[in-house]
Design goal:
It contains seven helices and no strands. α1 runs parallel beside α3, α1 packs antiparallel against α4 and α4 runs antiparallel to α5. The chain is mainly α. The N and C termini lie far apart (51 Å). The structure holds fe (iii) ion (3 copies). One fe (iii) ion binds next to α2, α4 and α5. The site of one fe (iii) ion (FE) has 6 residues, from α1 and α2.
Amino acid sequence: MKMKTLNDLFVDQLKDLYSAENQLVKALPKMAKAASNSDLAAGFEEHLEQTREQASRIEKICQELGVTPKGKKCVAMEGLIEEGKELLEEDAEPNVLDAGLIAAAQKVEHYEIASYGTLRTWAEQLGMDKAVDLLQQTLDEEKQTDDKLTELAQSINEEAEAGEEGSEGGEEEDEEESEEDADEDEEEEGAEAVSTGPARGRGRRS
Ligand code: FE
Ligand code: FE
Ligand code: FE
């Protein structure tokens, strides 16, 4: 595509974001499923609904401009989601995984905030009032989502710091020692993938 004007670049980047949002529509249910903290899982579910709406806002803008929103792949979002998948493959304690999921989600939100901020500003420059309004709505949602994640991280990070002990209600005093033993065993026998942690599941904690 030949980019002669800001308008061409605007359309190109709009398509990129449309791809990003659609990739997220597929990724968010998996993140919700992987989250142990029920507030975090519910947050992902809620943002899934918003994300669907955000994609349809881009469709509206494109319709107005007489262009298709399709035809581009956001490789940045592909990479961010890929990193999230790598995390899911780790044998992580539920609280630790939740902390990692928040980190992955905030990277996504920050990419979106940067992208929507730019597009909104370009739409202002181009005098596209309707597009400015729609892009601002999405930008506000992405910022709110980022703030919510920051808030959730406060307690989840604390629980992740405590590790397994924290997730089980701290019933054992010698947890640390037994974990050290487990580490030694692992070194000596090369044992792997011995999962003694609690099963992952939504709503385990309130
Ligand atoms: Fe979004
Ligand atoms: Fe992109
Ligand atoms: Fe988002």
